[in-house]
Amino acid sequence: MGIRDISRETVEGILSVPDQTVEQDNLIVFQSIIKDSQEQRFLIRVFVNIDKIPPLVITVYRTSKIEKYYESKI
Length: 74
Prior knowledge:
Elements: H1 8-16, E1 20-24, E2 27-35, E3 41-49, E4 56-63, H2 66-69
Antiparallel strand pairs: 1-2, 2-3, 3-4
C-alpha cells in the first residue's frame, strides 16, 4: 500500500463497502472505482485470502483498466 500510495483508509473503505467482489485464483477481490485529485477514475483492487483467520490482505493495487476487471457496465 505504501509503495503504491494507497491509504489504509481507502483499503478499509473498499473492504467494508466494495462496489464489487469477484473470485480470482482462490482469493476474493474487493474492488471499487475511485477518482483521484485530478478527477481521473481508477479501480482499486484488494485481494484477500478469506481462508485465513483473520482474513489476510494479499495485495492491493490501482489500475486505469476499469473495463478489463470490472464485471458490469459502467
